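Hey L., structure's done. Input below.
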Amino acid sequence: MTQAHKTTWILVCDGARGRIFTQPRPLEPLSVVSSAEHPESHGHTRDLGSDRPGRTQDSSHSGARHSMAPRVDRHNQEKTRFAQEMAAVIEKAAAAKAFDQLILVAPPHVLGELRPALGSHAAALLVGDLDKDLTNLDGPEIAGHLGAWLRF
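Output:
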């Protein structure tokens, strides 16, 4: 008795690029479902805006100045925003039943942003994750890292 093939989506991303792959049928190579780039994550923090907080001056005679808020790393903020955008795309597709199982592949810090950003539909379909940056690899090389989850 043969088991029906489950549609698996593989999200491979870092803080600036993401690709979603699928394996259409067992023994077939991965194919790209979609890809996205977040140019703001590539830039330098200084180009994304001031990271210096606003300042205030005491009304006392000391004239002391204090920062109003802690510094924010806008570069990391953009990477977090991109991970949340990718999670939203995955959630929308999961709610539409576009796939049966999900694998996340990303560096550890990005996985840490992706997992909690997944909605309930996508989280229920998550079968595994791999904490590696494979964004510069092609489909066959990525598939080689996912042998435990894919049928070849």
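The first helix runs from residue 39 to 42. The longest strand covers residues 31-37.

-- N.
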